[in-house]
Specification:
By secondary structure, the chain is mainly alpha-helical. It is globular, with a radius of gyration of 18 Å. It has 5 helices and no strands. One of its GO terms (molecular function) is 3',5'-cyclic-nucleotide phosphodiesterase activity.
């Protein structure tokens, strides 16, 4: 049940970003209401303080990935019954890599504390994110191949 509730984390990055944007719009609306009532909203609900990529990474590391790691471990034991579980875990891992790449790019561009949500709809930024993730995978695969080759020599 919990993994179903977190299924937006297993969508492709474009859809995951769109869902995150809708969630943060709702959070920010609640934060605005809390401010109007004189309260101080949590960072993730405060449009003036929320850094969405960082919050997404924290959420994935502390909630989504641990849940899906449990599901993945269970699914490996019963893989013949639920083979789809592997691709779900891989998708979540890829999404985490994309959010991390987005955060890195924003830091490099000097926009570490980007506020608002408009950049989540920036197609050029999304292309940069996906390319960075591809390049990191390629480097990692190259390192693994080199290590295997060195072991064989």
């Amino acid at each position: 049940m919990t993994s179903s509730d977190l299924s937006d984390q297993s969508k492709d990055f474009r859809n995951s970003k769109a869902i995150a944007e809708n969630i943060y719009k709702e959070f920010f609306s609640q934060g605005d209401l809390e401010k109007q009532m004189g309260a101080s909203p949590m960072e993730m609900m405060d449009r003036d303080r929320a850094a969405v990529p960082k919050i997404q990474l924290d959420f994935m590391d502390t909630v989504a990935l641990p849940v899906f790691e449990c599901v993945f471990t269970f699914n490996r034991m019963v893989a013949k019954l639920v083979p789809e579980g592997t691709s779900t875990f891989e998708a979540i891992t890829l999404n985490r890599q994309c959010w991390a790449a987005l955060d890195e790019i924003l830091v490099e561009q000097g926009e570490r504390s980007v506020l608002g949500l408009d950049y989540l709809r920036d197609d050029d930024l999304e292309k940069q994110v996906l390319e960075r993730v591809r390049q990191k995978k390629k480097k990692k695969q190259h390192k693994v191949c080199r290590l295997v080759f060195e072991l064989l020599i």
